[in-house]
Amino acid sequence: MFGNLDAGGKTSKYRSIESAAKDYAVSDLCKLFAVSKSGYYAFLKRKGVERDQAAKELIQKVYERYNGVLGYSRIQLFLLQDHGVWMNHKKVLRIMQDLGIRSRIRRKHRCNYVSSEGGRVTKNILKRDFKADAPNPKWVTDITQYRVGEKWLYLSAVKDLFNITKLSLIK
């Protein structure tokens, strides 16, 4: 009926006693599971009180504020920064598991095609000669992309190589 009586912690033993208490005497069940009666009754008293309710609400609040992308270690950090509450990372992980919340993993963008570089590569006109004798004969540009939240922002700068002045910034 009970399987391996030594398996599991005391909590699982107390739950087994609780389920079988209507058919058997509690004292006999406590002897069978090798736990004290006082421990079993203390378990029944504790069971009604919701453990870590305030911590669960705080973790849920931080999780929702950051759209569910944070894992337990970052939630621990933001609990301290935003709310001034220090909590052990293992406790944060346990509560997240109790609440059934998990971080959304952001996948890195990977190129999934092979480009034909023949038509895309331009001629190397400068040939690494980045000095100009007069303004305007040599302009260079670069484009950089930044990920901000779920969107990409692009920044392109155009420079004159004569005096390295920025001619234009395009956002």
TrEMBL record:
Alphabetized Pfam families for the sequence: HTH_21
Domain of life: Bacteria
HTH-like domain span: 50-109
InterPro entries on file: HTH-like_dom, Transposase_IS3/IS150/IS904
Protein name according to UniProt: HTH-like domain-containing protein
Organism encoding this protein: Paenibacillus terrae
